[in-house]
Amino acid sequence: MAVTGNGPLAGVRVVELAGIGPGPFAAMLLADLGADVVRVDRPGGGGLAIDPAYDVTNRNKRSVLIDLKSTGGPGRVLELVERADVLIEGFRPGVAERLGVGPADCHARNPKLVYGRMTGWGQEGPLAHSAGHDIAYIAVTGALGMIGNPGEPPAVPANLVGDYAGGSLYLVIGVLAALQHARTPGGAGQVVDAAIVDGTAHLTAMIHGMVAAGGWQDRRGANLLDGGCPFYGTYETSDGQYMAVGALEQQFYDEFVRLLGIAEKAPARKDMARWGELREAVAARFKTRTRAQWTEVFEGTDACVAPVLSLREAPEHPHLAARGTFTDFGGITQPAPAPRFSATPTAVTGGPARPGADTDAVAADWGVPGLTGKGA
Length: 376
Prior knowledge:
- By secondary structure, the protein is of the alpha/beta class.
- The chain has 13 helices and eleven strands.
- It has helices spanning 22-32, 73-82, 95-99, 103-109, 134-140, 160-182, 196-203, 205-212, 250-260, 275-286, 291-298, 318-323, 359-365; strands at 13-17, 36-41, 61-65, 86-89, 114-119, 190-195, 232-236, 242-246, 305-307, 326-329, 332-335.
- The strands form three sheets. A six-stranded parallel beta sheet has the order 3-2-1-4-5-6, with helices on both faces. A three-stranded antiparallel beta sheet has the order 7-8-9, with helices on one face.
- Helix 1 (22-32) crosses helix 6.
């Protein structure tokens, strides 16, 4: 795959030490933004049982094969590091150092390098060396405990809140900030410690403020934004589908109850003692029509109501289709790069990188002929 140089990060070189989950997603985002991301894959593959041809988190990247446990492996990586702006790794604390590609090793070769570390627990703390996954990280931060219905187990939000929101996005923010610092006069490279527990906790900042102000109860399903409010939640339709309601402000609520046909219940909005009654009325009304019928009623209005779509349905939504929010590349429907830029537009220019497929091209482009030798 040729490097096209599209996007605002064109010219930025990134080395990604292969991992799973939030690290690859963060590197994909940098690649989507135009960076030349070279993924260092290990011989024999990684940890996820997915065909590399379908792993879209490796799109817009290139791949080389290097065995970090071989005699020459760390040296090949350090040769790439000399020519890179950023390195991303997701090992447990201390592993990169033992392999000979830790921050000290890399900064000795390239003082300007931004060294991004993606972990769940962080580089220090009692649990730093423990295994974990998204669900544990969001559990201890209080985020998981907020999600779901009262009296029921917390609802698991896939791995979006921890791995990708609290992890990948914070790693990218940190990397870009550190890259800006490294490029200022007198600036130097540094280590970015992106822990999912830190990022996920940071996402709850507004909620902590509301708790302190007495505007949020520290339990599920009892608040304005967690399903406790009858005009901010989901309701089943007659065909077993769902509609999402977010009519918080008075003017949106007025439009919602008018179009739903229960305007006589409107005064119950501010009376929390009557929220149960209001919820029953809303639920009963939604059960009288199908999701498609209610979508037709609310689409394009200020009632703040939308159909709950599946992953396969989402690309066909008229608004998302008009914006090109999803794209098809190589026969795979996938989200298009985001956000959008007026002067440096982004695009999916290459499918998932196949392990080792770009070794020769990277060796030539980056000036590292040793990549193609037996020492890799």
